[in-house]
Amino acid sequence: MTRAEFIQLCLSFAGVYEDYPFHDPNWTVMRHHGTTRSFALVYEREGKLWANLKCEPMQAEFWRKVYTQVQPGYHMNKTHWNTILLDGSLPEEVLEEMLRHSYDLTKPKSKAPKKKRPT
């Protein structure tokens, strides 16, 4: 998977945009509109393409044990973030599941209207 293909996959989720906050074209941050919370960071390191994705701790450990392409988050909280090697060896449906998981964990919570108090 190329960087452009991964970014397009991220952009297929509702209400997201790509950002370059580090003024470094090597780092792309995929964010939610409104909150600016990030759910994916894409970058090249050691000549390979990687993505950092948010994850619940138990799920993060599971994916690290099952897939050699998944490591603790590079430059991130190692409990809540995984780093995924995007070399095409990880099944696409698994990558999409990981991406959806990160997106869902970071998306803005909808604010329910407050109930009116009786007067």
Descriptive account of the structure:
- This protein has about 120 residues and is an alpha+beta fold.
- Helix content is about 30%, strand content about 25%.
- It contains three helices and six strands, in the order αββββαββα.
- It has a six-stranded antiparallel sheet, covered by helices on one side.
- The protein starts with a helix and ends in a 13-residue tail after the last helix.
Key features?
119 residues, alpha+beta, globular
Secondary-structure blueprint of this entry?
Blueprint: H1 3-11, E1 16-19, E2 28-32, E3 38-45, E4 48-54, H2 57-66, E5 70-72, E6 81-85, H3 92-106
Antiparallel strand pairs: 1-2, 2-3, 3-4, 4-6, 5-6
Using only C-alpha atoms, the radius of gyration works out to: 16 Å
Number of strands: 6
Cα distance, first to last residue? 60 Å
Q: Give the helix proportion (percent range).
A: 25-40%
Largest sheet: 6 strands, antiparallel
Morphology = globular
Give the overall pLDDT as a whole number: 92
Order of helices and strands: HEEEEHEEH
The number of helical elements comes to: 3
Q: Residue ranges: pLDDT <50 for 5 or more in a row?
A: none
- Portion of residues in beta strands equals 25-35%
- The spatial strand order of the largest sheet comes to 1-2-3-4-6-5
The SS-based structural class is alpha+beta
